[in-house]
Design a protein that fits this description.
The protein has 401 residues and is an alpha+beta fold. The chain has 7 helices and 16 strands. Strands 10, 11, 12, 13, 14, 15 and 16 form a 7-stranded antiparallel β-sheet that branches. β3 and β4 (42-45) form a beta hairpin.
Length: 401
């Protein structure tokens, strides 16, 4: 028998007494109220009246009254001794419980601006709205498993063109939004319009030239493009598909050798050897034909290079008053549903949201083209390659209406 060790009784009337040892010889303290017995020794008794429980050997708990529900401890004790199929399952009936919390938060995007901490210094990122639209759009569209898998593959094959984009998406998934912005714009130069900010991030995958080969003399000529970004020429009857087709696939012509007179076959060649993942189109210079996003068919897909592209982002610029003081960028953005499902047309299932680009990163469900602020104009529209459902091997997908 271990020697009974008694501790000094506190003013509250409680004492601590150890009456036994565990298997390793350590004393286990007993908690209770000290009372005098007939032999003059202190004994440990249950003290439910003052809110304390006795865990000592031989101690018994007082039975609850009819108007007093069982305590959490008593439920545990009775269930442990019953050895029924409901062992270790607590019936919460009779216990005062609050209304269960249900997570009904709206989806969030990338918050505006941000803070960076480097070497005990705090760096405030401001005026980042010209970058936030693309970053937020990439972060949300890559929640579709097949699209993210495609970006990851491209980042490994062409790190110069895609690795930074993939790292930025992963940083956003870890809620490191400011680090994602630094990853894309290391020098923190945010005093730019959207085109000058995002095109350096995308032009590497868009660089291309044309090759014309004569079918008669078999001679070949390389034709450089007019510019690296996509500046479409449209009229009132043009579609984006037709404008992109004319931009990337010029018509066949006549051999450059005047003596030959043969017909040339013209093809587009990309620097990477692969078509681009993202097609950014400058709408700001098309304001005469696209004065607002209401005239855009957001379900218009583009088929180029034997690949299919869908719209996932449309940015809008609203100038401040006076206009020389700058402005603010906002956007419509597509967010896929969880699970990577396709609809019957082979497009990812999801919803469109209005991205105000505030510090709360709020996303408001909307119909694209319905929230253009007064005085705003379209800035850029972005297409992304949609992988076909049959290309997936590991992630299960399902097609639904």
């Amino acid at each position: 028998m271990a020697e009974n060790i008694k501790l000094k009784q506190e003013e509250t009337g409680h004492s601590f007494s150890s009456t036994r040892q565990d298997d390793q010889g350590e004393y286990i303290p007993q908690v209770g109220t000290a009372t005098n017995t007939e032999n003059g020794q202190h004994d440990m008794a249950s003290s439910h009246g003052n809110g304390c429980f006795s865990y000592g050997l031989g101690a018994t708990a007082a039975e609850p009254s009819e108007d007093q529900p069982e305590s959490y401890f008593q439920i545990l004790k009775s269930q442990a001794s019953s050895r029924s199929e409901s062992d270790y399952v607590i019936d919460m009936k009779g216990i005062n419980q609050s209304t269960p919390y249900v997570d009904q938060l709206e989806p969030k995007g990338v918050p505006s601006e941000g803070f960076l901490y480097e070497f005990d210094k705090c760096i405030f990122l401001e005026k980042t709205c010209n970058l936030d639209q693309l970053l937020n759009g990439l972060y949300l569209i890559n929640q579709f498993p097949l699209i993210k898998k495609g970006l990851k593959t491209l980042a490994k094959r062409f790190p110069v063109q895609y690795e930074g984009l993939f790292k930025a998406v992963e940083l956003c998934e870890c809620e490191r939004y400011a680090d994602a912005k630094r990853c894309l714009v290391p020098e923190f130069n945010m005093e730019n319009i959207e085109g000058k900010q995002v095109m350096p991030l995308l032009e590497g995958q868009l660089r291309h030239w044309f090759v014309a080969r004569c079918g008669k003399c078999n001679k070949r000529w390389n034709i450089p493009p007019i510019r690296d970004d996509i500046a479409l020429e449209m009229n009132d009857h043009s579609t984006i598909q037709a404008a992109l087709q004319a931009y990337f696939v010029p018509p066949n012509g006549t051999c450059f050798n005047s003596r030959c007179g043969g017909q040339t076959d013209v093809k587009v060649i990309f620097d990477t050897g692969a078509p681009p993942l993202i097609l950014p189109i400058n709408l700001f210079i098309l304001q005469n034909h696209i004065p607002s996003t209401q005239v855009i068919n957001f379900r218009e897909d583009v088929v180029l290079f034997n690949k299919r592209y869908m719209i996932f982002l449309a940015s809008i610029f609203r100038p401040h008053d006076p206009p020389k003081s700058g402005g603010h960028y906002m956007s419509y953005v597509f967010r896929p549903e969880e699970g990577g499902c396709y609809d019957t047309e082979g497009r990812p299932i999801g919803n469109w949201y209005w991205y105000q680009n505030d510090d709360l990163a709020s996303l408001e469900f909307c119909i694209p083209g319905s929230r253009d602020p007064v005085g705003s104009r379209p800035s850029y529209i972005y297409f992304i390659e949609v992988p076909p459902p049959s290309s997936e091997e590991n992630i299960p997908t399902r097609v639904r209406n």
